Amino acid sequence: MIPLKPLNCLIFKMFKLIFTIFSLLILAFPVHAGTIKGEVKYSGKTPTPITHKTGKFKKVCGPEILEESLILENQKVKNVVVWLEGKQAKKLKSKPGTYTIDQKKCAYSPHVLAMPQGSELRILTSDPINHNIHTYSFDNDPINIMFLPNQDYTQEMEEPEVVKVSCDLHGWMEAYIVVTPHSYFDMTPSNGAFEIKNVPPGKYTLKVWHESLGEESRKIEVGKNVTQVNFNFTELATQVSQK
Fold first, then answer.
1. Up-side HSE of residue 238: CA atoms within 13 Å toward CB?
2. 212: closest CA among 231, 193, 189, 236?
3. 103-150 residue pLDDT tens
4. Helix or strand or coil: residue 21?
5. Which CATH number fits domain 32-233: 3.30.70.270, 2.60.40.420, 3.40.50.450, 2.30.110.10?
6. Are 179 and 186 in contact (CB under 8 A)?
7. Domain map of the chain by residue range?
């Protein structure tokens, strides 16, 4: 038979452990956190796809490279970056990681790369020829370096912004790096769909960006259920904003 005092002590310790685990679960998964879902469409006039002749680089690059500035599938738009802004969004946390962009067959892979601020950008090259990677940024340190075969380079992306990437040796090579202010973001695949999970309840501005369609924002209020938000662009942007 266990004495009463030690038994009470054991029960207290067990209760304290259960309470601690429960508290950690609450912190990891906000109570009544919601989900934002939607899709991005383009219903305007579809431009003629642009191809670039590679000339003397065709042995490595192939004879032609198709531009990726607007990729559509049944009007659904690929490579749209979606994130949250506003007063409430300033409380959201960033979970930095390492994100990679490769120079492969004289094109950037992926064409659009999204990452939360504070993340490491790792640049690789799979090509047996030289490239010159050149980034255009306002708030992050610019990159302008000659890339030799099998070289790699890493840099922290400290501030949120849209960064254009190009190669000074091959004019058709372009990409975009979208640095978001936190980890509550998504990027659309070929079906144009996006989803942002575990969003604390509150009022936000949902921001979408695409290199050819421009930017659009929508005021939303997130509760414990799914918040559905769809975007339909009807024309190309006259000037793509990098901010």
1. 0
2. 236
3. 999 999 999 999 999 999 999 999 999 999 999 999 999 999 999 999
4. helix
5. 2.60.40.420
6. no
7. 1-30, 32-233
